[in-house]
Amino acid sequence: MINLQNASRWYGQVLGINDISCAIEPGITALLGPNGAGKSTMLKLVTGQLRPTTGCVTVFEERPFANPRVFRRMGYTPEMENSYDDLTGYEYVDYLATLSGVPKTQRKTAVESAIERVVMTANMHRKIGGYSKGMRQRIKVAQAIVHEPELLILDEPLNGLDPVGRHEVSTLLHDYGREGRTVLVSSHILYEVEQLTQRILLLNHGRLLAQGSIRQIRDLIDAHPHRIEITSTDARSLARDLMGLPYILSARLDGPSATKVEVETRAPEMFYSTLPEIALSNGYRITAFSSPDNNLEAVFRYLVTDKPAQPKNHLVFAPAETAGEEEQP
Amino acid sequence: MTIETPGNGHQPIADLSYRNYDGPLKTRRFRWWIVALANMRLTIRKKAFWIVASIATLPYIFQGLSLYIQSMTENAPMMHFNPMLAAQTERTFALSFFMAFNGQMLWLFIVALMCGANSIAADNQTNALLVYLSKPVTKWDYLIGKWMSVFLTIWFVALAPALIMFIYCMLSYSGDGFLTKEPTLFLRMIVATAIPAFLHASLLVGISAWSKTGRMAGAAYAAFFFITSAIVSVAAIIRFGMNPAKGTLMRHLTVEGVMQGLAQNVYGVTMRLPKFSKAFEMKELTLSPPNPWILLAVFVALCLIGIAAARARIRAVEVVRG
Amino acid sequence: MNVATINNLTVRYGAKTAIEDLTADIPEGCVGLLGPNGAGKTTLLKTLMGFLKPAKGGGSVMDCRFDTQGLRIRQLTGLMPEQDCHIPGLSAVEFVAYAGELAGMPREQAMRRSHEVLEYAGLGEARYRPVETYSTGMKQRIKLAQALVHGPKLIFLDEPTNGLDPDGRDEMLALVRDISHGKGVNVVVSSHLLPDIERTCDTVIVMANGRVVEQGEISTLKQVAQKQVAVELRIASDEFVSALEARGARLLSAQGSHYRFALMDHEDDIGRLLFETAKASGAQIRGFHPALRSLEDIFLEAVQ
Questions:
Q1: Which of C13, C37, C214, C292 is the best residue to mutate to test the A interface, defined by the most A CB atoms within 10 Å of its own CB?
Q2: N or C, where is chain C less crowded by C-beta within 10 Å?
Q3: ipTM for the whole complex
Q4: Burial of C70 (0-12, 13-18, 19+ CB in 10 A)
């Protein structure tokens, strides 16, 4: 649906994005990166507000810049906070439905169903000036979906929403993704992103750092072996046994009382297969275990703060299904 | 760096993390002064301010020079140089001060715009009021502080050159009876220079509070200033024709006019222009000070409106419309 | 020891009642204030700082009544507002020093303390630049600094991680945690982001519709009545579920490969149970831990 090929954009001297190539498929993809990484630039390129300085950007196989054919099939919630304070919610969505090309006969139903999907029906005839932040956020999402676009682009959609609102909008996005539409979400709140999707696009300093599923990316971050923390009453003995395994790089106890042991390994799959055996055969009592850095936040931190390095494919211990073919920058 | 802790001996590594502040916290009385001082500091930093302030001293320098030249050539009437001075028979010095004061009007207006337009408008733009009101500062502290900063700045620009001229006169013309003939001049000078400061500060603070940016406030005030002038001039011409001797009170019903009229009353001078235009069949144009009470009423009204407007507009608590 | 007590507070905005008959105690330490939009959180904060006059009821903050001694309260507390705010035309260090002066500090102390607090908030050389040039993250830190400069023992933070990128959030939350644990400053954090609250606060107050619907220590609220365990498998496996249920467990929820089970009370060695079941059903466990109610559950239950 969205395709970037060697797209770059700069503003005078200042770099927006640098030589980014990627393709965004149907489903939900998250666009991540620290402030200043180039996310807004990329979104502006995709939504046709800017043209790339070099390279090319296509949406639905057309260039999106000032292209109404593309706009008609696309919904966009920008991050900015300004709004039409004097219009009611209904009028605002109605107005934008007209702009998006919803035919007059269907407009009323489209507007009402869009507003209902964001749970704003009770407030739709109040002026936007009187809305709280969460309500404004929701009405923005309503205007983006009113024309049932195939492509939905959301910049910080969950900002300002309470958990109830967040749940509603997330469900909406999940449904959209499942229906085969393309959803591109840009957000800072990593734990929410993780619940939405496994597919990410990570930018930093205008470059594309990583693209693919969180799990695969995590496996390929060689510099940070997986850490797994095990809580057990027999932590010390467990640690000793684990150190005997060839793919365990280190085992660390949390203190002299040894209630937890944290191991590092580059072959987590093998570890997960072996741990039950060790525990059962030796009768170790394990009360919990988890991998504290097997999540999006860790991936983000490792990729963004580390110096750029060649990610090696650690084939030595990689079990069969860890794919290494994901596109790397 | 070592820190002694009781009973523990030396701690070689200092704890540089957050420390509490248990020092003195002054009570309320001086809050508005802090606001005023901060605003004035911002104005003082601008180069443009000093340039305009310097230009604003020129009228006084000019008057001083006039006096000097006249004193050099005491016996020859220098009528063509400064006929008004020559025609003045009493309160000559007061007249000089008043004329210098008049000459400053435009520059005081510009200084007012510089320090006043931004005073509250810039805060509106950056939501600064949230910061102010989350400290032990009341809305009045804030308003008085802002007003004071504008007032004091304008008063300074008006008064400083006047003081210098006063000292010059005192040094040079005591012999001519500077201090003895016009004993109240010092007080009159202080009051007169405060008048534009007072009025500009009140009006600007009111307009600034209702504006979103300093530029808007400045433009609004300038518009008000000039439009009232235009309206009044036209009205006066309609009513009184082109004769400058008539309709003096009406001509003074502008912002600038109110200030000049009141100052003229304070200085207590009558302007006389001999050999005035034949067209008006006058040998001499005499402009006495216009009715002070009406002017005073207008002055007070404008000031109160300005301050009240500002007070009404200052709110840090957004009202969630139900 | 409570830093604030509120009794039967009612606050109205014109015709709308924002807070209705609210009674709560704010304990020491770090307290989270949660609630849906429109629950009255910001209104409560403003009332506690003496901005809004209650229609009924009252209370005190730091031993000063907030309906009458608002000014004194504002000298003893600090507020980090949600919106962007700063004094125009000043650099960070001047701004924070000015804030200190407004709170009553003498000028030199204010300047010295401004540097100290900005250092603590992580603003290095940038502190000499005008605030208008700052990024969101820096502006948030300055807001925190200006709330702390006069050494208040209680600060109110309204959405402290608003607009921050993940690194910035990390650092801000670390700061909040540091300040509230061991430095003697009590903190009230109002936020939508539950993980933020979990990371920094020990107690929560949940508000909805202008009332308090739940309050208490997070650890206590999270306790569940029965033994529950959250399990993550490599891939979703129905065989595992049935095998575990056969051994006396009850499936509470399933989302992809994440499951939640309630176990029999006498279940002693959870690890053994799960590993044996996994072995038998051919599933691979990627993690498990005793499940507590998440803060999200607490919130949703309280609010609905």
A1: C37
A2: N
A3: 0.82
A4: buried
